């Protein structure tokens, strides 16, 4: 269900249920969480096998929750925890989106640091059409990425958008035939700096606290890379 392949500085994590459009069950979410949490590589490349990135929650798993509010809330919290694991990972997580990213699948992509789509990628939150929504943190992340107005229109309409529109509104940051090339580009940089820069940019603390942390992180990196800096001056 989740396939992991380590290749130098990049850990490729593949959602591997192509016949189900890589929909995720409870077990699949747990395996995805472990695959991200166990990473020692500085870059994680998250992808789907086959013609879809991910359809999100497996509807059979959702149907089994009918009438049990506690289990339904637990399932949502599990998806939220996996998304937080992606967001908080020391590694830079790049989502390579080829084909549809729907519902919870889109919400997992929103938790990634960089989202790269192919020209064939499409994006949507269709759950609203049958009385649901993803609930894996998307209602918090979507307005941070798109702004409140675009987030509301996108979520409430339930429409699917293509790669060009996703790029225009900022849902993805790059459009590439081979999204992995962006993961390789990032992995070519100093590994320790990648994680530091990720967490400084994601730091939502009050500005003075953020600036103190930024200065301390910069000082640590100057000390760690003294030889590299000297070499640039030669």
Protein described:
About 50% of the residues lie in helices and about 15% in strands. It is globular, with a radius of gyration of 19 Å. The protein contains 11 helices and 9 strands. It has about 230 residues and is α/β, with parallel strands linked by helices. The mean pLDDT is about 95. The strands form 2 sheets. A 6-stranded mixed beta sheet has the order 1-2-3-4-6-9, sandwiched between helices. The chain has helices at about 25-35, 60-65, 70-90, 105-110, 140-145, 150-155, 165-170, 180-185, 190-200, 205-225, 225-234, and strands spanning about 1-5, 10-15, 45-50, 90-95, 100, 115, 120-125, 160, 175. The protein has 2 domains: about 1-185, 2-enoyl-CoA Hydratase, Chain A, domain 1, CATH 3.90.226.10; about 205-234. One of its GO terms (molecular function) is isomerase activity.
